[in-house]
Amino acid sequence: MRNEERGRRTAASGRRWALALVAALAAAGCAEAPGPSPEQQAVFAQEVDAEVVVSAVKNAMRYATPRVEAPAGATVRLVMDNSATTSPAMVHNVVVVATEPAVERVGRAASGDRLPDDPAILTATPLAGPGERTAVVFTMPPPGVYPFLCTYPGHFRFMQGTLVSTE
What does pTM read for this prediction? Predict the structure, then answer.
């Protein structure tokens, strides 16, 4: 075996070992997620009429809370709770859209936090990494049923839910 090839194999093995170590530390609770940004601290401190929390299933592309509701016209804090997750691949958000057809369009066009300029998007939480919670404050739309999705690449087909605006 040539030295160059041996070096590549050693480097690849080292990367696999480092990734395995990080995953093991995270699973053991030794790696903590960074605290919320100043912007997110302000969002969580803001007074609201209601708070709705959408939780993710630990280390899965699935919402544990596929349906939430709040009164129409209320000032609402929408929370993406990804605190149970430890896998670095499980980054999630909640993007509320006006209609069911918009789910496919927005899901395909989005790339994580980079959302398309689409008038169907009503509100969106920032991405929440493993162990994190993010939120957005918005005014609930008129009474009706509004779909939501995760726009992290590859997730929207599996991560969809419903926001119900009640009278």
Answer: 0.80
